[in-house]
Amino acid sequence: MRKTYLEHTKEIIMNMGPQHPSTHGVLRIKLWLDGETVVKSEPMIGYLHRGIEKLAEYRTYTQFMPITDRLDYVAAASNNLAWVQAVEKLMEIEVPRRADFIRVIITELMRIANHLVWLGTQANDIGAVTVLLYCFREREEILDIFEMFCGARLTLNAFRIGGLAHDIPVGFKEKVKNFIERFPKYIDDYERLLSENRIWLKRTKNVGIINAEEAINLGLSGPSLRASGVKWDIRKSNPYAVYDELEFDIPTGEVGDVYDRYKVRIEEMRQSIRIIKQALEQMPNGEIRAKVPRIIKPPPGEIYHSIEAPKGELGFYIVSDGSTMPYRVKIRAPSFVNLQALSKMIEGHLVADIVAIIGSIDIVLGEIDR
Amino acid sequence: MNIFVDYILIPIIKILFIITFVFVAVLILIWLERRFQGFIQSRLGPNRVGPQGILQSIADALKLLTKEDVVPHQVDKFIFNLSPIIVFVTALVVFAFIPFGTDLTLFGKKISLYLADLNVGLLFIIGFNSIGVFGIILGGWAAKSKYPLLGSLRSASQMISYEVALIMSLVSVLFFTRSLSLVEIVKAQQEMKVWFAFIQPVALFIFFVAGVAESNRLPFDLPEAESELVGGFHTEYSGMKFAFYFVAEFAHILFFSALVTILFFGGWLRPFPNVSWLSFLDYIPPVFWFLGKLAFFVFLFMWMRATWPRYRYDQLEMISWKWLIPLALANIFITGFIVILVK
Amino acid sequence: MIKKIFRKIFLIDLIMGLLVTLKYFFLGKVTVQYPEERLKLQPRFRGLLRLYKDEQGNDLCIACGQCIRACPDSLISIYSERGPDKKLRPITWTFNLNRCMFCGLCVEACPTNAIRFSHEYELAVYDKKKLYIHKKDMYLDENTRKYFKEN
Lengths: 370, 343, 151
Known about the structure:
The structure holds 3 protein chains of 3 kinds. Chain A has helices at 2-8, 52-55, 65-68, 76-91, 97-126, 129-150, 172-194, 198-204, 212-218, 223-227, 234-237, 258-282, 334-338, 340-345, 351-361, 365-369, and strands spanning 12-16, 28-34, 37-44, 159-160, 163-164, 301-309, 312-320, 328-332.
């Protein structure tokens, strides 16, 4: 049976199955291989589908919030923020400034936590096993901050329509300040371990290149798009919350390979620290929740609102018919759209590069399958 | 009576001693690696089973012994059973030629701390190591499925390329010793009063890199990288046969560390033999110097594993063929030139 | 330029990585030995839900049903009756731990602060029926400690 493959030299169809130590979740990729080079590939998803968009039609706006936590379970607060801001935009509620500042702090902390998981898993796939443990050790400190704020470490559910659930406790500001003073040294450690390392450079430079025009055509967003040279960040172009009052830079890359995406995300972590520092200083006193009716009934209409989640552009499209439950919710998940670029990126590369490339576009299957 | 003691009893005791040493050392190494890697990663390694977790390896060995030995039905049974044995036996046999120290005097008899000292010892050792490569190739081939086949092919090509680099780096050492016997090499370092590491640093570097690649350790462990091709050449093995591969890998680490200390770092000689105020160090038996240097190199192996990423296998091959082998050749020429000039 | 060649030959970048890991070899370890030591929880930690009584020992719960309406999955069910003092009191109060998300919407909705989060997180049971917690087990007293260990 095997002889026919060798004689006619057909391409091998190999399956990088749903159970694999390196695809981040249950992702299945069907590969057409010629020797060890990839000729064609086809990602197949759907192994984690939970019907979240359908669940939204039977829950009220407040009840749906804990479910949005479970979309991108690595950075849960961003999903909360997108949903809450979408509903507030629909109902035209003005959120008090103190609540906005605290939301920004939590979201940026979540961005750092997300990039830590990304760095750890990508380094682990390429072989440096200690970086994973170091990143998770730092993430523990961030999760402790979250636990102090709202009681849960991962699925926060701390935002409410009109503001926050509770105010920050005593000691929160000091703890966050303590963290952001120590954190840049840890980033320096990771850079010393990886950025100049010749093995890392050889594995990640010129691997998985995608140029700016192709990236825009495929609909990439987030750090993967910025690494290809396109300067597009929703926090700067359509600012939401108080981002227009804070100063930060947007890191961009040039070539669009795995190394550039790595550099962009590391730099984003540093910029997040800068944002948190400014937000801590500029936070006003005041109330944390606007006057919102008990039962939330937005006027009939539809709205689309998107934010810059750590993985890309996360958008919620809500169609409301005037009752307490939404008529239809559509979630534009960034990983779902970014995954389309995978086929283009791994053409012509070896099997050993596939793992590095999947790690660099930073997908999480909870978002893709919803 | 003398013949019996000299030629039968003492060698048997030495054989038992070597086998026990290798087994115990491997068990301790497995525990040490997990603990050491844990310490580097800001966590404790295994510390529950036994004091500080020493008995963890014994627990693992017991688990592997009692595991069901799953044999897929399409394998070639003879080769499937033979390959772990090849790898394991060759990894053990090479320890017969490694001298652990100078001669001891026990019960009025002079006992040498090695099992046999051929005058082509080095060649024999490297040859046996190459037979070990067979075990890996056959292991992947016997399990007739795609993943192990790919893994064993990559492993075979990797090991063959680095064998060439290994042997070439040794040639430059032999300019100074005129003999392939390991005991003679250490004695030559004693006569020249300088360890070969200081006069042949390039050869040391090439030998070390090739040694790491031969034993399939990070940063060259692509054949068995879990995140790429599930298991590589040992996907289909379970239970005790898998344990054989595993023990053989750690025995390789020990073996290459031992070779590095003997060939380049003086074996059992103590450092600074000329400095007189350090002569109190003479009271330490040479065996301890040997084991100490061995421990240092084992530590270095584990340290490298915890830190660096791994190479892609075509970059691996490029390193060997494009850099190491030309460097080794250049080293041989230059060394030969200098030796002829000096003499 | 010469510095670049120097770095490349002597593997400076690799050695820097080695030094970083060596530094962490000597620094402290973050492991918490689980059954003997426990992590310290913050005050707002979301553990198991519990009903609370006031200082006189009466139930704080007035069976208003706000928590039932707030829960996304409808895990609470109450059957209530008016007591002798014309106040509504719950007779049976069942809570399904099987699917609770620990989201906290019920805690926020309660007007008398009767249902709150405790600090218990070791919630594994051998029998699935024990996950349907009835009223008599919802209070924090000696009877319940044999099911769930408290922090």
